[in-house]
Specification:
Layout (H helix, E strand, L loop, with lengths): L13 H6 L16 H11 L13 H16 L5 E3 L21 E8 L3 E8 L7 E10 L8 E7 L1 E6 L12 E8 L8 E6 L2 E2 L10 H32 L12
Antiparallel strand pairs: 1-8, 2-7, 2-9, 3-6, 3-8, 4-5, 4-7
Helix pairs in contact: 2-3
Length: 254
Amino acid sequence: MKISEIHLHHYDSLEDDIMALYEDDMHTVLKDEVTEETILALEERVNTKDTVSQEFHPAREELLKELDVAKGILENRQEKVYPVNVSITASKDSHLKFSGLNAWQPLGKTTYSGERLILYVGHNSRKAGQRADLKLVYAQNHAESSGFYREWNLNVGRNELTVPNLQTISGVEKGGQLYVIYTGNQTSDQYGIRVVGGQEIPSLNLVGLNEEERNAAIDAYVGELQAHVENISARHTELHESVDNKNINLPYDE
């Protein structure tokens, strides 16, 4: 093989500066000092041509996607980041002679039919826009005999979707819980998910904990559950007053 043309570039720290916005390898948590001005300054650099070559950065589109993700995280810093457990995957069960094992991991969020959700997915090596080995699952409460859940493939970075209506039963709220499925089989994968939208509910995760840690986690969960139940009627009224949606605006029913 012969090289007929070589294009040389000077080193530019722009990409490294954008990646340095994050506190974690999964790019789901921004550093405390990151502000809107920080991101806008980087965005201006991305959209400015090099003075010597008069060309944009070779990875301009990819870098703009990264900055869009950073903007979304900045606006929703209060949302928790859920670390995906990559040891829970159906890919490890292929040697079994039966099916039906469930690899869903609860995100501790409920949502209603018609709600718009935004999910930010981070990975330790993949960039924004690349396919993630993850699926989001929405499982409808008060399920009918079939079609009680819906799945979506997720990409690294920003994902948007609208929760569908999966039932025809009248007189019950149309909504359910959110789960994530890891579909890969790589122990080196690290994924984090930030969900903008939905409502938090108590959830319990005992995977990988010793007896003492399990007992402490269960005690904390029971406390959260009691506080949640005591406040659920008032919270129901508060949320329904802020949402105009016929699928959920029904009187509180214990």
